[in-house]
């Protein structure tokens, strides 16, 4: 397993990470690795999304949301 060292972390960022780890009952390492993994997953998702062909809906997507909300309200 590889090691990674991050230098010159701003004190406020370090404190926020420590507080987060304490709240979650995790180690600082666990919190940092989870954050890095989320960031990489998000970047990979955006890359996949960028390569997809656009979908033509025939009308603005917002109109579908409006119709779904109106239907939901009507059924209440």
Helix and strand arrangement:
Blueprint: H1 11-24, H2 28-50, H3 61-75
Helix pairs in contact: 1-2
Give the gist of this structure.
The protein has helices at residues 11-24, 28-50, 61-75.
What does this structure look like?
It is a single chain. The protein has about 80 residues and is mainly α. It has one domain (about 10-75). Helices cover about 70% and strands about 0% of the residues. It is built from three helices and no strands. The radius of gyration is 21 Å and the shape is elongated.
From the N-terminal CA to the C-terminal CA, the straight-line distance is 55 Å
Sheet-strand content, in percent, reads under 5%
What is the strand tally?
Answer: 0
Quaternary structure classification:
single chain
- What is the 3D form? elongated
H and E order: HHH
Q: Main β-sheet, in a few words? A: none
Rounded mean pLDDT is 96
Please mark out the parts with pLDDT under 50 across 5 or more consecutive residues, or reply none: none
Fraction of helical residues: 55-70%
Number of helical stretches of at least 4 residues: 3
Structural class: mainly alpha
